[in-house]
Design brief:
2 copies of one chain form a homodimer. Chain A has 203 residues and is of the alpha+beta class. Helices cover 53% and strands 9% of the residues of chain A.
Chain lengths: 203, 203
C-alpha cells in the first residue's frame, strides 16, 4: 500500500489549497497537518528540518521533501499525472505553455497580487494603490482574456495543474480582475464547480 | 542547420540575462533583439503577438513562443539540456529539488527583492524598508546557507539552470544577503567566473 503523502499547512485556504486540490483531482491519499504558528509549531526543529524557512506548505512524499506551492504542484503532476495534469517534456509546445503559466501564476500574478495588499494608511496611499491595482489587473487581462475567451482551460490540451494554480491565485484580485470580466467570471465558475476543488475546500 | 533562437529583451542586464547565460552554457545559436521601450517597440502589434503584456524577455524557438524568464530557462534546459542542466522527471529527488529552486528563485526570492526596491521617501519609510530587507535576507539565508556551505551548486547533482536563476537574482540583495556571508560570497564568485556568464555579459 502506498504510504500517505503528508501535507503541512496552516489552514485550508492558505497556499496549501492548490496542492490539496491537485491531490484530490488525482485521488492520491494524503494527510493534512495543520500547524499552529502561535504555538511555535513552524519553528520546531523537526519542522525546520523539512522547511528551513519555517513556512508552509511543505510536502513529504516518502523520501521526497519539498516546499514552494507551485513546485509541489509541478512535482505531483509530473509524478502522478504526467501526460495529463502536466504535459510530457517531449510534447514541447504544451509543456512550454504549461511551464509558462505555472511560472507566470507565481512570478507575475501572485507576486503582484501580494503587493496589492500592502498595508496603506493615508487617503493618498489608498488612491495610489487602487490605481496600481487597476492598472496591473488590466495587464493580467491582456495575458488571460484572449485565451479564456476561446477555450475552457489555460492549455489547449485541457485541464491541468496550471488551471489549479491560476484559479487559486486569481481570486486575490477578484475585484479588479474577475468582476465584470465575462471570460474570467466563466472560468472561475467552471473551476469552483470541480468536485475535487469542493472536496479540498478551496473556495 | 538549426534556425537561430530569437531572444527579445531590453538590455543585457535585465531578466533576459539568465536566458542568455543558459543559451551560452549550452552553446545554442541565438539572436538578441534589443527593444526600445521609448520608441514603442514593446507595444507594436507584432511584438504584442509574441508577448501580449508587452514585457521582456520573450523567446521564439521555431514554433515555440514563450515568456517568463524562469519558464524560458526551464523550457531551454528541458529541450536542450535534459538530464544535465535540468534533471530528468524520473530522477524524482533531483527533479523535485530543481523545481523547488526554480520556483523559489522567482516566488520567494525575486518577488521579495523587487519589494526591497519599492520607492520610499520619508526617513521613517527608509527605516522600515531597511528592517524588512534585513529580516527577509535572514530568511533567504536559512534556505541557502546550509546547502551552499557544503556543496558548490544548489543541486547535489551539480551545476544546473537553477544556479543560473539564483545567481542572476541574488545580486539584487547583495548588501543584505551576500556581503559578509562567506557561503554566498564564494558561490557568487564561482558563478561570475563561468565563461558562459562572461560571454553573456551577466555581471
Amino acid at each position: 500500500m502506498q504510504k500517505k503523502i503528508d501535507l503541512y499547512c496552516m489552514a485550508y485556504q492558505d497556499r496549501s489549497d492548490r496542492v490539496r486540490w491537485l491531490l484530490e483531482e488525482l485521488k492520491i491519499p494524503y494527510q493534512d497537518h495543520f500547524l499552529k504558528k502561535a504555538a511555535g509549531e513552524m519553528d520546531s526543529p523537526a519542522y525546520r528540518q523539512l522547511n528551513p524557512m519555517g513556512r508552509t506548505p511543505t510536502l513529504v512524499d516518502g523520501d521526497i521533501v519539498l516546499f514552494e506551492s507551485a513546485a509541489i504542484c509541478m512535482y505531483i503532476a509530473d509524478t502522478y499525472g504526467y501526460g495529463s495534469f502536466a504535459p510530457k517534456i517531449e510534447d514541447r509546445q504544451a509543456r512550454a505553455d504549461y511551464t509558462k503559466w505555472m511560472i507566470w501564476s507565481v512570478g507575475s500574478l501572485e507576486c503582484v497580487i501580494a503587493r496589492m495588499f500592502t498595508h496603506v494608511s493615508t487617503e493618498e496611499e489608498k488612491k495610489v494603490t487602487h490605481a496600481f491595482n487597476k492598472q496591473q489587473a488590466e495587464i493580467f487581462k491582456l495575458a488571460l482574456n484572449p485565451i479564456l475567451s476561446k477555450q475552457d482551460y489555460i492549455l489547449a490540451s485541457g485541464f491541468s495543474a496550471a488551471d489549479i494554480m491560476l484559479a487559486t491565485i486569481i481570486p486575490g484580485a477578484e475585484e479588479f480582475l474577475v468582476k465584470g470580466n465575462p471570460p474570467l467570471e466563466a472560468y472561475m465558475a467552471r473551476m469552483m464547480k470541480r468536485e475535487a476543488a469542493v472536496r479540498a475546500k478551496v473556495f
